[in-house]
Amino acid sequence: MNKFGYTISRDNQIDYDKVDRSMAAFIEKNEPTFRICIQCGSCAASCSAANFTRFSFRKLCLLIRRGLTDDVQKEVSKCMLCGKCRLVCPRGVNTRNIILNVHQALHKTTVYEL
Amino acid sequence: MNFDVFTLPFSVGLVFIISYFLAMCIQWIRNLSATERLLLVKGIFSFKTFTSIKEVVLESLLHRKIFRVNPLLGYMHMSLAFGWFMLIIMGNLEARAYNPIPIHPPYYPIFFRFFEPDTGTFKYSVFYEFLMDFLLLFILSGVSLAYFKRFRSMALGMKRTSKLKSWDKWALAALWMIFPLRLLAESFTSGIYESGGFLTGTLGRFFAEFLPVEYLAYPAWWAYSIALGTFFISLPFSRYMHIPTEIVLIFFRNYGIRSSEKINGFADIEVKSCSRCGICIDVCQMSSSLNQQNTQSVYFLRSVRDRSMTKSLADQCMECGRCSQICPVGIDLNTQRYLARRRVHEEFRSDFSYLPDLQTRKTDVIFFAGCMGHLTPSVIHSMKKVLDHAGIRYWFMDEDGSICCGRPLKLAGKAEEAAQLMKKNRAAILASGGTTFVTSCPICLKTFTEDYDLKQMRLYHHSQYLLKLWFEGKIQLEKQMQKAVYHDPCELGRGLGIYDEPRELIQRMMILKEPENTGENALCCGGSLAHQEMSSVQRRKIAFDAAAKLTIDHPDYLVTACPSCKKTFQQASPVEVKDVAELVYAAIQDRGRKTALKSREIAAAEAN
Question: How close does chain A come to B353, measured CA to CA in Å?
Fold first, then answer.
């Protein structure tokens, strides 16, 4: 059958009652400022890595909340840890510690500790 | 041969500690890499051995560096270390002079008074008698200062001393008992035989009047021996392991061996050399500003030694270097943190395959603003204007955003991930064929100097480069009657040893005032990239405290040379914060304005 270039997009529904909250909970425990992010995007605007590729710390936070661990893994490895986002954040979110904790959490998921 | 059963605790302890120490030495040497072992062999037969011996005398015995912190504290440490050392040496000489047989059992000189209670007169006997008593008194003065320090440490210049764990307390109790017990034992014996020097003899006669000294002497010798034995046996498990280890440390360090990735080689020597004196606690701004007293280097090293180090403990340090600066043992504490972070962040994996090869431009001078530099656009603007004014043809390497220099990743212990970034940057720098590399960011400069292997290039911090331009006459500066205080950024000052150039530059433009904490003792602004867990509130507290101390004399400007410091101080300083580059640009503008005004005046006068 000719689809004329159209495809059926992947089901992208996120049911917040059913998502895997383990990583978000782990990060909230270790870096409580994860909660106070207002998703303003200052971090994404100043990001050194975003200059070269599609990467956004704000999006990363969203993916963590949605429990999309695979996507988080792909995204977080792009961070250069330069710390610009930390300085521009109007809420004082400790972005670098969140990144470090994401790495910890990912490791814990692979060894079934989380 | 002289022997008594009470010498056993001492002898057992001595044999134990000597064999333990030798085993440790063998392990340390075995864990050195091949190149390090070569350094060791080369070093032993060189002049460095003599420098090391000198350093051992000055630091391990006389504790010169602690004298600099506080004379009374230095005296306390010196009397114990140097006094005890002299007591052993002189005791041996005395025993040899009295009883000239080739080899004494090791306990003989230690318990000399017990075995030879009434020596009568032999060659120089009066001298030895006096000297041994004098040395004992010297040590006891130190011990009483140590007792006193437990209750009022402030009198010895320490606001806070280190909190001890049970093994340390055990060893400390033994150490505190050794010398009073020796005094009692010698006094009782002297009391029986009516011998002894000015101290033991007098005390002995005094005790003999109302105490049954003939029954007390033997138990006192037992107690003295047990105290010594206990101290020796607790040595490997307590902080006092630093006594033998520090000597090894000094020799190895002078031979050029440094802490490397391997944690059980030289790094282990450093860990065991920490005497937990606690001098690092007071200088740490997390203690003075945030009232946090469990993350300082002393506790961190202890946790490494106990194998109880946690991620949190490894991460909670600004790596400002103030503790390394003051550490009397000279342990490279920042490297220790780095090694610990390597272990706790092992699971961290980065993938920088998305990075393109950077565009490069043939040029002689490269300017690199760095990530932090991009957050202070006024510094970049000033630098561009000044370089244009001086007629420098340069390539602004990261004008459209930079690849991070890699230092922040390295501070988190990820040297391999950082290397990926460094490779990209290095390729672009080398391809440009430049000979001069100027950066605004001390954090970047540190890593460019240490990790990038750019030997064919001269690396400058912008303050150094601007001073060079001034010396070459490419920029002119005029002195104004404004007061400025200069804040040494940690990475620029303690990190790279650049103290004078920014000061010289400021002095050409303003009156430079030196704050109390300056140069090597400069404070950290709190904006450190090394501390991974500090909250913004804590960060601001440190910045406020540091800014308040720096601006106590109400200068017109708080000048710094690091974009991160500038950004942090901007929120905390009561006076305007400026970067050196901004001052230079302002001075040039000012001069330009004056010249323009003058030429206009001349033109007007001519027209009239």
Answer: 9
Examine the pLDDT at A7 and tell me if it is beyond 90.
no
The pLDDT of A89-113, averaged and rounded, is: 90
What integer is the mean pLDDT of B119-138?
Answer: 87
Final residue of a structural domain among B344, B378, B399? B344
Beta bridge partners of B460: B438
For chain B, what is the mean pLDDT? 92
Picking from B445, B471, B497, the residue at the C-terminal end of a domain is B471
> Taking CB atoms and an 8 Å limit, are A96 and B532 in contact across chains?
yes
As for how many domains chain B has, the answer is 4
Decide if A83 and B529 are in contact by the 8 Å CB cutoff. Answer: yes
| Cβ neighbours, 10 Å, residue A6 | 7
Which chain B positions have a beta carbon within 8 Å of A87's beta carbon?
A: 372, 375, 527, 564, 567
Q: Which domain holds residue B439?
A: 365-471
Choose from B371, B380, B534 for mutation: most chain A CBs within 10 A.
B371
Measured torsion, CA atoms of residues A49, A54, A60, A64, in degrees rounded to the nearest 10: -140
Report whether B189 contacts B113 (CB < 8 A): yes
B189 with B286, same domain: the answer is no
The secondary structure element, H or E, covering residue B483 is: strand B483-486
- Give A20 to chain B, closest Cα distance, Å: 21
ipTM: 0.89
Beginning with the edge strand found earlier in the chain, give each strand of the sheet holding B511-513 in spatial order.
B511-513, B483-486, B557-560, B576-579
For residues B64 and B105, membership in a common domain is answered with yes
Residues B31 and B157 in one domain: yes
| B5-34 residue pLDDT tens | 999 999 999 999 999 999 999 999 998 888
In angstroms, the Cα distances linking A97 to A100, B110, B534, B577 are 5, 56, 9, 28
Tens digits of residue pLDDT in B501-523: 999 999 999 999 999 889 999 99
Percent of chain B at pLDDT > 90 equals 77
